[in-house]
Design a protein that fits this description.
single chain; mainly alpha; Arc Repressor Mutant, subunit A; three-stranded parallel β-sheet
């Protein structure tokens, strides 16, 4: 049997972290088993579904590098098929027309709440036939089993049992003829020949409801695997402050897709003590038996640490392509990236630091900076002379010249290195050794920035 998985998001918002991990697990399971990974957009909620959300989902998956097989499916295109199955279930006496109005349902629910009972709907129309016309457009409900229990052998959660008395006769076709999510999911998964449904464990109760439809149609159930949700760092439900934002936002924040893939993989799945896992290793090692049953906690520090690792592993050319820099000063930027990438946690760090190396870049000095520079104006003036006369503008040439200057003045590099860094980069904490910074900026720019500092401080 060929494995076929699917990722089936609703286009009512962006692709968030939880959805991205679900997509990744489906992708890896399919690739590990040399099967197919399909994409279905579940746009049954016409009021909330938007083309913008569909685009955001596709962009997010594309950035993550999770390529699906074939064209993606729009669930709304299958409405006629869903209606056909609803009618078949009626014909098989596995479903029925229910004429209970929305107002009656509200009253029943309120009555149960007043009695302190969990509301479970039992329709009086389950075994009735309408004998006269009604102003209520009937819905079609599936007939849930009334006795015994249902069992699902979940590939993550293990054996899960539910008493059938706890299952409602759920609506599969609304009064306006629109199929419900529960029916559409089952029909589409069956028609797409999905073998494994891998999704968040908030869908576990849905699996029992969907199982009723599978069995009523005489269809084989797929294998279910319900993975625990991702929580915030404090163990509470994920929110924006925890990182529950669009996957594309992470791209804009400066994260690399391979770092995000590696991090999401380790959220709830493990392979021994391995932390850094390549794409090839992920495909080779992935299995649902290694998925934990407890919720994972999202940790920005760990994600940043992984991102730093992957930035350091990139060539300077690759990083420059990510940053979309103009190539006018390409050579200078490539040289700067060689040491800047050793410290960067985010691509945006590199972007900010590289700005300093633009010719004619001029930052601002705050009052504290101006005071530091003013106190060393005489020394800075002498350094300007040294740089002006220096002919060997190489790393070693600059280093030897500044060491000679320091020895002659009875100083050490640390006595003027910090103020020189401040003048040249407009920051006291810029990346890179001071000799590298000076060499890459070049004589003209170094002298121009020293003059700028002396004139403005």
């Amino acid at each position: 049997m060929s494995v076929i998985t699917r990722f089936a998001p609703s286009p009512t918002g962006y692709l968030h972290i939880g959805g991205a991990r679900t997509a990744l697990f489906n992708y890896l399971f399919a690739r590990h088993n040399r099967g197919k990974f399909l994409l279905r957009i579940e746009d049954t909620d016409e009021k909330r579904s938007t083309t913008e959300a569909i685009d955001a989902i596709l962009q997010g998956l594309d950035w993550l590098g999770l390529k699906h097989d074939g064209n993606f499916v729009l669930q709304s295109k299958n409405f006629l098929r869903h209606q056909e199955i609803a009618k078949k279930l009626l014909e098989k006496n596995q479903a029925y027309l229910c004429y209970v109005s929305a107002e009656e349902l509200v009253c029943m629910r309120e009555f149960a709440e007043k009695k302190g009972e969990v509301f479970r709907f039992r329709s009086p129309w389950r075994d009735k036939v309408m004998s006269q016309s009604s102003s209520v457009k009937p819905v079609i409900r599936i007939k849930a089993p009334l006795e015994g229990e249902s069992v699902i052998n979940d590939l993550v959660q293990g054996e899960v049992r539910v008493k059938n008395s706890e299952l409602d006769d759920l609506v599969i076709l609304r009064g306006d003829g629109i199929p419900t999510y529960m029916l559409a999911v089952v029909v589409d998964d069956h028609d797409m020949e999905i073998t494994h449904v891998i999704r968040g464990d908030d869908h576990l109760t849905n699996a029992f409801r969907q199982k009723i439809i599978y069995e009523a149609m005489g269809w084989k159930n797929p294998e279910f695997a319900h993975i625990p949700l991702i929580h915030g760092s404090d163990g509470t439900k994920m929110s924006k402050r925890h990182g529950a934002i669009s996957v594309i936002e992470y791209k804009n924040m400066g994260y690399l897709p391979e770092a995000m893939r590696n991090y999401l993989l380790r959220l709830g799945w493990s392979h021994g003590d391995a932390e850094i896992i390549s794409d090839a290793q992920a495909i080779e090692w992935f299995g649902l038996e290694k998925v934990g049953k407890s919720p994972s906690r999202f940790d920005f520090a760990k994600l940043k640490s992984l991102n730093k690792h992957y930035i350091r592993g990139k060539s300077e050319e690759e990083l420059l392509n990510y940053l979309n820099y103009q190539l006018v000063q390409k050579t200078k930027f490539l040289r700067a990236l060689k040491f800047l990438k050793e410290r960067a946690e985010l691509l945006t760090d590199l972007e900010k630091w590289l700005e300093t190396y633009h010719d004619d870049f001029r930052g601002e000095f705050d009052e504290a900076d101006k005071k530091i520079i003013a106190e060393k104006k005489s020394l800075i003036g002498d350094l300007r002379v040294i740089f002006n006369d220096l002919e060997d503008w190489s790393h070693d040439g600059i280093k030897n010249s500044l060491n000679d200057f320091a020895n002659f003045r009875g100083l050490k590099i640390k006595d003027f290195g910090p103020v020189l860094r401040l003048i040249l980069t407009f920051s006291s904490s810029s990346a890179g050794g001071i000799f590298d910074v000076i060499e890459i900026l070049g004589k003209h720019e170094v002298l121009a920035r020293i003059n700028f500092a002396l004139e403005n401080c």
